[in-house]
User: Fold these one by one.
Assistant:
Number 1:
Amino acid sequence: MIGWKAGDLLDLRDLTKEDIELILETAKSFKEVSTRDIKKVPALRGKTVVMLFSEPSTRTRISFELAAKRLSADTLNVTVSASSLLKGESMLDMAKNIEAMNVDMIVVRHKSAGVPQILAEALGPGIINAGDGCRAHPTQALLDMFTIKEKLGKIEGLNIAIVGDILHSRVARSNIHGLIKMGANVTLCGPTTLIPPDIEQEGVKVTYKLEDVLKISDVLMFLRLQKERQEEKYLSSIREYTKLFGLNKEKLKMAKKNVIIMHPGPVNRGIELSADVADGPQSVILDQVTNGVAVRMAILYLLLGKKELVSDDLKGQGDS
Amino acid sequence: MIGWKAGDLLDLRDLTKEDIELILETAKSFKEVSTRDIKKVPALRGKTVVMLFSEPSTRTRISFELAAKRLSADTLNVTVSASSLLKGESMLDMAKNIEAMNVDMIVVRHKSAGVPQILAEALGPGIINAGDGCRAHPTQALLDMFTIKEKLGKIEGLNIAIVGDILHSRVARSNIHGLIKMGANVTLCGPTTLIPPDIEQEGVKVTYKLEDVLKISDVLMFLRLQKERQEEKYLSSIREYTKLFGLNKEKLKMAKKNVIIMHPGPVNRGIELSADVADGPQSVILDQVTNGVAVRMAILYLLLGKKELVSDDLKGQGDS
Amino acid sequence: MIGWKAGDLLDLRDLTKEDIELILETAKSFKEVSTRDIKKVPALRGKTVVMLFSEPSTRTRISFELAAKRLSADTLNVTVSASSLLKGESMLDMAKNIEAMNVDMIVVRHKSAGVPQILAEALGPGIINAGDGCRAHPTQALLDMFTIKEKLGKIEGLNIAIVGDILHSRVARSNIHGLIKMGANVTLCGPTTLIPPDIEQEGVKVTYKLEDVLKISDVLMFLRLQKERQEEKYLSSIREYTKLFGLNKEKLKMAKKNVIIMHPGPVNRGIELSADVADGPQSVILDQVTNGVAVRMAILYLLLGKKELVSDDLKGQGDS
């Protein structure tokens, strides 16, 4: 068995609304830990968390590493390109070896979709998907939902637009699954070439005009544009993309007064968002980063055997 | 003075049978630590262990890193190719610098034979050889011996075959020294081009036919084949090698019922071992990986000043 | 506000003589910690220190990492070339992200002068400059001053020569600012092409002959020569440079009997210093390395909120 109930976090499709609510609730308590003078609780002392990454991703890696350390777990970094993959060993062989060393959790990032699932099937419990290809990035979607709930008090009933390259975005895919489950009205917006043709089956609306979502949305979530999409003929030009789907101060005037602007980062300033919008009062981009640590603490905590938050686990001072 | 008595682990030739027995016995106690809920003892709190590697070797590096962390030591990774060797500094200069920072133990992996010895001579105590060129890999041989003893109850008197590229294998070399010392009957098996001509002086037998060892061996230890050996003219073809020296389910029928199959990893599946044999019931390959952490905990513990295991050092919960 | 008073260490020009004395005094107490059996105090438990490096620099990185660990802080390494800078994100964006994760201190090394200042202006307190371009390397100068005071009992009134490529040396620049402030008589010595034309305004003397400083100096501080300076036409030849500005046993006879030889490392043996001088009795090069950890412990400790050393912070055994 794999999936959330079995001790893995692979895809938000495996989680119920209640599972998501438990994670968000637990994360709320852990967020406070990172604001303490001594930012550490002993909850996962003596546990080992390995970051097994085949793609460079500093921000996701350090967010998980900090989350694990603030729970007093030991951490290990394994970058696959700099390691024995050079000798032709497969990711699966490497993961089996890591498991044999009595590691408690493997956080996996891989450029190929499905690799975390393969590992979860072959290994015992303890795989977290930190992003696989264009498929899923469940912890990003959870931290996005946490941030929405924190800023707007709820998710249900909100109008949420996801803008940009939906086709290649694991962030979009996971957010769609999560947000729909939580009762939001999700609209996708982007160039026709970058929206999957049958995506409406997931329960979302689609539009090809930013204006359609600007006025009605409570949340505007922009995706990072990979500039190589132009070379791959998905885009006529970056400038054209920005004109149609980028957000600047002028366009923002059309939006709801309390709209929040989200982005998984790193922002291409001047492409998806103008600098003044990215750094402006509506932007919650750095809150997303802050909340990422809390949400990942909650996920590690819940997956490593605690079915609910034990208040004692918020006490104490780290390794004491 | 360098060598085991002086606080270094460079080559199994420096150790007596009693030294090896002490390590294996100590490792047995530490193995249990890695199965606890809190996999940590405070034995090496406040000690610093540096992994100084000039070759990528994820599995050996993380095995040592986990061993050190489970003893509550602090760990530091220094990869020489990614570091100031770029500026022309020698490994020796770097090691002297690390020593000057009051580090307690330097775990060294280098592609040139003899580098750990050079460091041990120039520095104070505290060098562990994690593999140098084709010369020695003592911790691998110790974990192999631990695994043999664990599975078969003893080493003395066993028939043990080492199969493959003996010539270039530090794993073979260290196992020969250790196993002979422990009283095993060791037979080497491989292509004539890959067995050193005068190796029988070490007290081993040599054969060029796998069948000779298949029937009589209690342990079949296969070595990883470097595919570049074909280009270097040591081999006519990989396929030929596998036909003559690879093990598959068919050939395994000839072996003793309780034979164990070992491999230092990573396995070239389909070359040294067929996948069903590598993953089959006779294979103890992942046990080797598990035991590697326990054996390295024992080595770190014994080298850092404890002459025997103090039972108090198995108590407690990590950093407390 | 940025600078030492605000919680950053960017440049020794921001520090008063009293600030420097406080750091050196605090470092003295922390030096003793690294000689203990358990080299750890709990002073910064639950704090997080990130090493954000855009240049490979093993020795500075591990010195800071050890300093942080011996104060029981958690550490994270972020190498910018191996990370999301690949995706075009700026160092500033990365630093803002790291700050958003409630990190307490960012140690920054960057090949461009001014980057630590930019980060300090954009972020809250908590930036340490670990070397920026040719501009400043304040922690190196502080460990150099600590070593001088340790070996010679004082800094004030000493004759100190800095020899080599002053023009491109952040080490020289920071030492000039620190040593002048502490009352030393500083003379710069090197090829005319490698000494900035108006440097005497800083309060130093300049000479182009090594003999001028050999006889009178209490401290001879040699700088590492970048061999590419020859290609850049700053030097006629390396051999010529060594003849004029290198130190060997023969030339050393001209020096004061108690002179100390310093070098920030790694030494180009045979260029700046002959091997027998680099490893000889006058050399304090490895003392500099040892003291680097103590000085960085003091800096982390003082910047993270302790205005003076609390003696309780030297007690205890690490994470307990």
Number 2:
Amino acid sequence: MFVGERKLETASLHLIDFDHDSLNEVVGATLGQCLHHLPSPTVTWVNVSGVHDVALIEALGQGFGLHPMTCEDIANTSQRPKWDEFPNYGFVAMKMLEVDETAQQVKIEHVSLILGDTWVLSFLEDEGDVFESVRARIRSASGRVRGHGADFLAFCLMDAVVDHYFLAVERIGDRIEMFDDHVLNDPGQVEIQEIHRFKRGLLALRRAVWPMREVVAAIAKSESDLIRTDSRVFWRDLYDHTVQVIDMVETSRDTLASLHDTYLSSLSNRMNEVMKTLTIISTIFIPLTFIAGVYGMNFQYMPELTWRMGYFVVLAVMLVIALLLVVWFRRRGWL
Amino acid sequence: MFVGERKLETASLHLIDFDHDSLNEVVGATLGQCLHHLPSPTVTWVNVSGVHDVALIEALGQGFGLHPMTCEDIANTSQRPKWDEFPNYGFVAMKMLEVDETAQQVKIEHVSLILGDTWVLSFLEDEGDVFESVRARIRSASGRVRGHGADFLAFCLMDAVVDHYFLAVERIGDRIEMFDDHVLNDPGQVEIQEIHRFKRGLLALRRAVWPMREVVAAIAKSESDLIRTDSRVFWRDLYDHTVQVIDMVETSRDTLASLHDTYLSSLSNRMNEVMKTLTIISTIFIPLTFIAGVYGMNFQYMPELTWRMGYFVVLAVMLVIALLLVVWFRRRGWL
Amino acid sequence: MFVGERKLETASLHLIDFDHDSLNEVVGATLGQCLHHLPSPTVTWVNVSGVHDVALIEALGQGFGLHPMTCEDIANTSQRPKWDEFPNYGFVAMKMLEVDETAQQVKIEHVSLILGDTWVLSFLEDEGDVFESVRARIRSASGRVRGHGADFLAFCLMDAVVDHYFLAVERIGDRIEMFDDHVLNDPGQVEIQEIHRFKRGLLALRRAVWPMREVVAAIAKSESDLIRTDSRVFWRDLYDHTVQVIDMVETSRDTLASLHDTYLSSLSNRMNEVMKTLTIISTIFIPLTFIAGVYGMNFQYMPELTWRMGYFVVLAVMLVIALLLVVWFRRRGWL
Amino acid sequence: MFVGERKLETASLHLIDFDHDSLNEVVGATLGQCLHHLPSPTVTWVNVSGVHDVALIEALGQGFGLHPMTCEDIANTSQRPKWDEFPNYGFVAMKMLEVDETAQQVKIEHVSLILGDTWVLSFLEDEGDVFESVRARIRSASGRVRGHGADFLAFCLMDAVVDHYFLAVERIGDRIEMFDDHVLNDPGQVEIQEIHRFKRGLLALRRAVWPMREVVAAIAKSESDLIRTDSRVFWRDLYDHTVQVIDMVETSRDTLASLHDTYLSSLSNRMNEVMKTLTIISTIFIPLTFIAGVYGMNFQYMPELTWRMGYFVVLAVMLVIALLLVVWFRRRGWL
Amino acid sequence: MFVGERKLETASLHLIDFDHDSLNEVVGATLGQCLHHLPSPTVTWVNVSGVHDVALIEALGQGFGLHPMTCEDIANTSQRPKWDEFPNYGFVAMKMLEVDETAQQVKIEHVSLILGDTWVLSFLEDEGDVFESVRARIRSASGRVRGHGADFLAFCLMDAVVDHYFLAVERIGDRIEMFDDHVLNDPGQVEIQEIHRFKRGLLALRRAVWPMREVVAAIAKSESDLIRTDSRVFWRDLYDHTVQVIDMVETSRDTLASLHDTYLSSLSNRMNEVMKTLTIISTIFIPLTFIAGVYGMNFQYMPELTWRMGYFVVLAVMLVIALLLVVWFRRRGWL
């Protein structure tokens, strides 16, 4: 269900340098180009696709003055979401989540973000399009992002990740809703394994979102100079969003649990129905068949067999027995 | 089960301006009329029905000096309940809940409230009558609301919303009570899907009430000038009410869980009953039918068949077997 | 299960005024008599039976200087337990619980207490005898209550309520203990609905006791002048008692849950037993009956039928089959 | 399962007075003897067996200067574990637990401890040997206890009680381990009621140990002069022990829960096995028996009966049907 | 499942003394050799294999100035993980965990660590290779460990232990993943006891890791001089790792719980399938067999038997009944 093995052996850099008036974009930039823009007061954003190129990450680390442990955390794709403050930058580890159309498959990607005073580094495992919307907004020169500093850009990038959580939880939620209809109306056609898959998807979401909430809260409350006072309102808003995702995940989990109980109950119910049918048919016909068997015996001396009305008396007795049993079942509420 | 798609394309404004002595009410007011009353010391309440009219909300936002993010939160109907303090106003997001007669359907509506020093804005998704009771109290010139300020009006509006929670939880509670009787007295007629629907209703209530508690607590403890000291006692009372709703929701959930267990147990019990009946009948008659079958075989040489008393001996043997089995079942407590 | 509708339309006042040396008791007192004793340094206790007499409560409220919201809380019988401090008095809302002999019915009553400097007001929904033990202690002139102030009287009244919780939880506990024996020794005779009733009773207790704990803790820590320093030790003791009730309720709940699991398991076990019996009998006799059926066919040419030993060979074959099946069942551990 | 009714009507005192060099032990001491040793700087330990002798406890209370509520707490055998500090002494209430060999029976005893500056009072419900190990260490003149003060003696007594918890939890743990083997290897022989008894035993342990942890933590952090600074390390160690007992109890509970689930699953599994056997046999033979029945009918005109090969054709048809059904069962994975 | 009995009667010491430039390693060192290196500013690491050699541990304790309770904690292999600060050293108790290939067996080992200013003592129950990787890094003269002090060495040793947790949880996780496939695709072949074993393994991990988190957090926050400021970043990193292990354990537990539910559901489902097959076959053939039985009776006067078409009419009636039953099953969705 989870896919964690894709690796880009050679990473590629995507450089965007902008302020309110100017914009400079280089796809497939070199490290030198990136460092060239660093001292300027414009916002410098370098996006790195492919975190398995250890040499490049170390070179970037030296160029941007990163602690060796930060470089390790960038490359460690099983790192939990966290926020680390260093004297000259802040480090954010996050998880990107993508759920496919049928909510059966969850793709988890490790995303790192480094926020300096006038620069932002972002690291993706893969060439993804999660930040494409942010790039579009920068290019269009409209929107708030061009007029704000590096911290607002970092906020936009994290916001883009959290927006993906919404997408994921909504997709799963929609499938659960469909599943709900199924269980209530046609439990016979339900594949119970689906519930297990949804649960695993929600589990993956939880593992990503719960620590993300801590991360955003820590940033919103951080006293670091990197986070400008007037952009705190945005972080608080992002915090609200992560709480809302958690809320939705928990509600989906509760709904799923209730659905599972309902499914099991209706299964039990149907089993009861089946067993009752079997029992009624068996209980009525087994004694009758026994009587027929008795008069099918070949003893030479069986007085009833020679009676003129014997056959009809036996048929009548059978009928009476059957009717009595039916009445008895009625009384017990089985019919 | 949830309905979230109704939209009023064009919003309508309902203006009420009052103090202890005067009352001014305009249905379908213009923005200009609303802003005209703003500077006066009287309490100005503008109720907006329809939050999807983005243009109007932005115009209102500019007129009343609202932050752009507040305007976004008003229009975002999936916003969680929250309390945000701004320098010149406070923002409350809430959820209105309505449960239909049979407790099968829950309607959720996003309600926003903005509390200024002498004015209150309220936003509904739809033309609803939730605030009609407050309007009636204002018009009647009696009651506390005319003599108090804008914060007391805001309290009344929130109180009206919380009163709807009571209604909702009581309606679900009553249905659960009815359901309870059913399960205990006539489990065969129970529709287990009901439990799932109740659970979803209670889940929706929880999602609305738990954050509402935080909101009310935050307002009660707020040090903002908007909340007058002498009206704090009312907020504390409202807090008590939300806690009570939570209490009722949790109790209903626990009752429901216990009911579900009871239902499953009685289902198992009935299954046991059914299987025991089948087993007793089968176990008694299957061996007897076998014996009858044996003497129904057509072998030319079967000595018993020619015995004078053969038939009666076999019948007696069958009777003895049947009686022994009945005794055995008695001993095992099955009869 | 819960009874909440009894109302006394006309309330009656019971006045007791005492100090260490004197005692004044008036059954069916007038409001005037009550207020007459108020200014004296003696402890004045007015017990009001019947909280639905709104006029009387308002009159009392004015006489004793109560806030309008306190009067509302007294009359609101669904008010949660709470402790509210006002400048001149403290307000306690509690729940009285009575469980009938068979632990099937729980009666919940709203009890309010108002503690002034030298006076105590208590409000019952009904004419009950919960405070009779306190009255007896006052009348007997012995015991601590005569020598202490109003706060100790309030403690005694609350202690009497908590003592009723002990009674309730013990009564339910005893029934669960009996039930326990039943489940372990004779699960066939168990009525599973009992468990549901016990659970509801414990749920009612929890709803009453958990907030009661908060109330008592708040009073014990209160810095109000109403609570004398030397009586704090009694409130702490009362706190211990409420914690102990909670402990007992939770233990009963856990025991009940374990009992329910055990019951279900033994049900499954019995079902297994039943099914095994059916399967063994059926599996042995169905093939034999088939063989008998084969030789009961009326084909003109069936060579076996004419064999001299045919009948006995078939009987022997049947015996062998039956024995083989018995051996097979033994091997599988079914016999 | 719990035994709480044993009472010693007449209590007996056991006095030990010691310091590093001297030792004075009186079995069946009088109150006077005990008080005689009180003022001396040696450690005076009085153990009281039998807490139902109210007169004696009151006399002791007066002699040692105990608060009346302490005396009540000593006699109240349902008192929860707690630590109360008074100006001149500290009061500890504890629960002693004994589990019998088969872990079926749990004996709970109320133990109280009073720690003065140079004296310790201990109260047992019964004449027990829980403190015998401590006495032995005092008598042997070796070990730390002779050289330390009263607080170290109190620590030793509490340690002896906690050691009994270890014994109890280990005994239950061992039985669960045995039970585990049973469930995994021979679920048919398992008595499910055992699980219920283990759960009740662990519940009793929890009720005793959880508050005990609070008690020990409170003493370790207490700023009272009664607890010497250099003995705090022992209290911290005792705290570690209680946490470890809790840990073991919780692990046992989790193991038990998992075992119960496994048991139920294997029960379901076996039921499936049983039902499959029944279904396979029935489904193969019921149609065959029907065919045999058809040709056992006595109609005068049944053409097949006169065919020369009729019998063999029918046998062949039966064989084919049986084989087809076997193939079908194989395909479905039932065989 | 757990192995706790291995003991090395005679312990062996492994001494490594190093600084940035020099390295001194003695396998099977004497206590004297160890103490000889103690005063030097180089880092002295003594690893003791075998904690049951009480005499040696006491001798070490005296040589290195350990508190008697520390010596007890080293030898007590059931000691919970903890961090104790003493004036001249810090004591860490940990659990080593090893899971075998099939994740069926968990080996738990008690590991103690003592951190002095320039020396580290480590204690293993057994001759293990858990610290071999650290030794290799020291010997290779590369890596950070040679250049740092004793606290960094202690960090490396604890890190090696936590790395084993990752291994353990990953091994169990992989087996659960395999198990998952089994349950979803071929539930008939699943051994439910596996789930119980995984749960016990995860329980053992939890018991080791949860308190380990506290330990690492306490060290990271410790104000002791033993922990240098510049090595705190490593402890924080270790803390992240323990949290991650906990995360993985909890996720595995949730997955396991969901798997168990899915397994039970699919078991119920299959049972339903089996019962439906039995019921359909029985319900169709039992009435037909009865009819055949009736016409197999030997009454002398049974008019139908003499009818020319009697046989064929009966066959036709049987066919009609069978078809009607098939239609009825179709309607109920059983076919």
Number 3:
Amino acid sequence: MSNHPSEKEKEGMLAACLLNVKAKCPLVHNITNYVTVNDVANVLLACGGSPIMSDEPEDVSDITSICGGLNINIGTLNKRSIEAMFVAGKRARELGHVTLLDPVGAGASKLRTETAIRIVEELHPDVIRGNISEIKTLANGCGTTQGVDADAADTVTDENLDAMVSLAKELASRFSCVIAITGAIDLVADAGHCFVIRNGRPEMSRITGTGCQLSGLATAYCVANPDNKLVAAASAVCLMGLAGEIGFANMKEGDGNSTYRNRIIDAIYNMTAEQLEAGAKYEIR
Amino acid sequence: MSNHPSEKEKEGMLAACLLNVKAKCPLVHNITNYVTVNDVANVLLACGGSPIMSDEPEDVSDITSICGGLNINIGTLNKRSIEAMFVAGKRARELGHVTLLDPVGAGASKLRTETAIRIVEELHPDVIRGNISEIKTLANGCGTTQGVDADAADTVTDENLDAMVSLAKELASRFSCVIAITGAIDLVADAGHCFVIRNGRPEMSRITGTGCQLSGLATAYCVANPDNKLVAAASAVCLMGLAGEIGFANMKEGDGNSTYRNRIIDAIYNMTAEQLEAGAKYEIR
Amino acid sequence: MSNHPSEKEKEGMLAACLLNVKAKCPLVHNITNYVTVNDVANVLLACGGSPIMSDEPEDVSDITSICGGLNINIGTLNKRSIEAMFVAGKRARELGHVTLLDPVGAGASKLRTETAIRIVEELHPDVIRGNISEIKTLANGCGTTQGVDADAADTVTDENLDAMVSLAKELASRFSCVIAITGAIDLVADAGHCFVIRNGRPEMSRITGTGCQLSGLATAYCVANPDNKLVAAASAVCLMGLAGEIGFANMKEGDGNSTYRNRIIDAIYNMTAEQLEAGAKYEIR
């Protein structure tokens, strides 16, 4: 995809990614936080993949070897799990497996910032998915992330979109990976192209772990679509956002964020290739 | 509130607490068990707060510094997380942040009893919330808690209510904190006053983690209402109990404890200040 | 049950097991993975039992002492939790408590295989419940488990049923325990008899943790029915499968695996002795 794909070329791209996941049932090794791990497992099963979790340094090399990809999420990192991330990440790299980094809370603590940067430098993840504050922390080597949510000052908006698209491409080039910055507007970029995605609902931020779930999905999508990780990651972002829209449309009086969480995973479980193609709202810059 | 508040003074107290949480979006650092952590995160988001979890000693000082309060729950304590509790608790104290202790299983093991007592003595939590068996263990320095539920012999009833109210006030005075003893009848006391709260449903005990969720809520309520932690904690207790009633009223044929869990969190998500004021059932002694 | 029970003897067996659980409220100590731990806790509450989780070596001896049984699940094992498994397992054995092993991922890594085998050899669990790949790994001392799901080549089918029943009985004899091999057809065997159970739905494999939940249930059922662990474990397997059928029958348009998870636990919460007797589909070989 050396130039912007034509409308004809775009047709069916996302559908193909989804169908590959369902056909190949990618096995994903997750070293992830204990807050949202159950939802990550269920969303991987929902999309057609298969999850396995392991964060003991002595266990992860064997486990990652039988998987197709590795999803590293630093949401509740500790010394043992950090060691496991590097053992698994090096093994995944030796085997040519897809690795994704979700730098949860990078910028909010020294340990998180340093660990995320070390992972980028030493493990060379294929995809980095975070909110804008986390991604800027990786870009700058430091940050001011407030908790696990993006700073308001950092939001991607229509006003700063050109600059943000350039930033995403620049970082993708610098880190030789796909960069996914998610928020009200999602950006998924490699050095040459950036998907600007407008799926999703603001209410998704009132559920814990929609970002973690997306990182799991993006890993599975890249494992099943290894020849085009940009489109694979963008498909996963569209899928998550569209599921948020469908899940919200199914909400009834009295439903809140707990039921919404279930409905989003349910929507991913039921998503067809046609639905994804028809519902995805994106442009490529 | 040096004397019993008049009906006029009481009016709107709980509503004000709820509105402050929604306005201030308190960020709560949770060092909590991995059993119910996802529900704690979702209930904090539901009430209008924001959760962050971290239990690595090297990480917690930074994390607690950016938060407004610290929720310490010993439900699945281990040596690393115990160390993290003290590092975070000392930092929270330095910064004047609200700290809540949920002494899960105090009395059921030596490690839990000793850890809970050390936390009370060294970290001086602003609020302690537990069942009667756990609270009595803190009072007596030892206990006979059977598992994570209160001993039947220990229940707060109308028959022993006067004695229990006195115990709650005495402990609140001794530990210089707010004491919340939850069960069929809930007591929330400082040295001078005790809220006797009769919201809730017995079926809530068939869901794992309603106590843990309440501790998260109470922390957020105290962060957003720092000038009256007694009323803030009592508001959170009323909120949880009322959500249990609303959630139960929304149950349909075939629903069980898993759906009930979702409906309770949903009810907290949708709770208005007016609903809370109208539905709270309490007296102050 | 030295011979095949007659139809008359079988009548009410499962119902009696269920009623004993509800009457005795067995307290189960779980050392289990952090992926599905919340569902394990809720399913134990749903069936009428009570869960407690602890995996700190210094805590587990006290905790297991106040429980009736121990459920060991190696799904996210680490060095600390492995140590805790042995401390708790030895204490449970001293006290004559029921111990169940769920060898999640045995065969998928050296650490999992070796840990599972050491648990069998040193702790002599009363029940081992796993998929066929995991159980074969225990039988052979090594394995080729792909992730946490059974290998397709290993499935129990009508074609290989006789051989599989023999294998289950042989292993039960060799390990002096009840062996539960779960999959499309479930086998629950001691040395002399094997329940062949045909409850359940294929869609249950699209939910994370139905196996972990079943292990929790089987532990509770054995604690409450200590004189016949074979029937107790078989009752739990029928209960889980039947709940899967009832939960599936309650699915509505748009529901997926997340809602299905809730409906299964709900069905266990509402299951009556009569429903279980009427819905269980098994023969004894």
